[in-house]
Design the sequence.
């Protein structure tokens, strides 16, 4: 939810305004030279969010904060929060992209994103990465998207075949097609019911071959074979009809 996601940002800002956070930041500056020029967290934020300036210098500051989080547990939490505050616009974009793609997971996304982001900070190899900001944001979104897709696939696979949603989908596929779809209907004519449903799910519902096959009780390999065989069948029919139309109906007579 936007309110709870925004509330998290406000909460982090309040924590960073505490004197204890400022004390920890000063300790970071003593061991990380890129942070030493800043007298406070606020001055660092102002520098990082200012228009113009040297982008490379700003990236080095983020790298120094990541190094601080990795090197000393005493101020790890504060370093995490500063990085989150600095990269909030990017994290916000990640949150809303994933929310649109996986609306059922929206309530869990704030905690999942921040937990994954904290982990990404700790495991990032600063010796091998130069684009620290882009790498952190990209890795968090990629890994979370992969997990959400896996969870959705598992949920669909475990969905009982007599579930109302499944029955409705199958019933819709069994209904006569509209006039606008008669071209598809003509192509599917003569296919066995399972092949017909498989192609309908792929062409009309936009499912992958594996997803459509799983819904019909087929393994991924069996679904691919059926799909390829059905397409070959359709292509052969189209070639025959094309030859028939060009010969005036005399083909095969």
Sequence:
């Amino acid at each position: 939810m936007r309110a709870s996601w925004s509330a998290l940002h406000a909460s982090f800002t309040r924590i960073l305004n505490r004197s204890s956070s400022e004390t920890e930041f000063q300790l970071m500056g003593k061991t990380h030279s890129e942070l030493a020029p800043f007298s406070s967290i606020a001055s660092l934020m102002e520098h990082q969010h200012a228009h113009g300036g040297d982008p490379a210098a700003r990236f080095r500051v983020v790298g120094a904060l990541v190094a601080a989080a990795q090197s000393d547990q005493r101020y790890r939490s504060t370093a995490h929060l500063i990085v989150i505050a600095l990269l909030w616009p990017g994290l916000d974009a990640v949150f809303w992209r994933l929310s649109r793609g996986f609306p059922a997971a929206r309530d869990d996304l704030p905690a999942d994103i921040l937990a994954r982001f904290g982990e990404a900070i700790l495991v990032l190899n600063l010796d091998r990465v130069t684009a620290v900001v882009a790498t952190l944001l990209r890795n968090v979104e990629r890994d979370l998207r992969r997990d959400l897709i896996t969870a959705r696939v598992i949920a669909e696979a475990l969905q009982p075949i007599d579930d109302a949603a499944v029955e409705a989908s199958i019933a819709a596929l069994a209904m006569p097609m509209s006039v606008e779809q008669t071209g598809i209907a003509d192509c599917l004519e003569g296919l066995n019911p399972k092949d017909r449903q498989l192609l309908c799910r792929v062409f009309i519902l936009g499912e992958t071959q594996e997803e459509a096959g799983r819904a019909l009780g087929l393994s991924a390999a069996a679904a691919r074979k059926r799909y390829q065989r059905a397409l070959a069948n359709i292509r052969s029919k189209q070639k025959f009809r094309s030859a028939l139309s060009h010969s005036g109906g005399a083909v095969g007579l």
Observations:
- The chain has 13 helices and no strands.
